[in-house]
Amino acid sequence: MPEIHIRDAEPGDVPAILRMIRELAEFERQPDAVSATEADLLRDGWGAEKRYSCRIAELDGAVAGFALWFHNYSTWEGRAGIYLEDLYVTESARGQGLGERMIVDLAQLAVRAGFRRLDLSVLDWNPARDFYHRLGLQQRTEWLPYRVTGAALLALAAKAAPAG
Q1: Domain 4-158 has CATH 3.40.50.300
Q2: pTM of this prediction?
Q3: What would the pLDDT profile of 48-101 be if each residue is shown by its tens digit?
Q4: What are the residue boundaries of the structural domains of the chain, listed by start?
Q5: Annotated catalytic residue 132
Q6: Paired residues of 62 in beta bridges
Q7: What contacts 113, CB < 8 A, 6 or more positions away?
Q8: How far apart are alpha carbons 52 and 45 in whole angstroms?
Q9: In the chain, where does DSSP find H-type helix?
Q10: Is the dihedral of CA 71, 52, 145, 26 positive or negative?
């Protein structure tokens, strides 16, 4: 039986995390979309202003997956939560239970911290949707995701506030 260990990521894990981020981009059919660097991940995960947390999954002592998350906040509940930005298991380690162990680990972390929710987004074609449903996560169909990036974000930020 393979040995699975889930732990906090350390700065020395950054090269492996970035490699897996690139593998994830390949899987999500956007191989050229990753512009993050090791320096970016170090700054934002271990710098003066921590912007994300990361858990590492090891299979038989080797890094085989990661869960990168940050806090969100419910104004209605007055409580923080976890937003899981990325969950990834290397192809060779799939089917060994790492993904489930990482989701359970994050749920336990949320409960210990007094959080009331764990949120994530999944591409509509991703077969992992069945995995999430099996674990009890529910798709929220009434909320539609919106995003502004790149030139549109710059144009929006450049708009002058209305007078008055």
Answers
A1: no
A2: 0.86
A3: 999 999 999 999 999 999 999 999 999 999 999 999 999 999 999 998 889 999
A4: 4-158
A5: yes
A6: 59
A7: 80
A8: 5
A9: 14-27, 38-46, 98-113, 128-134, 150-158
A10: negative
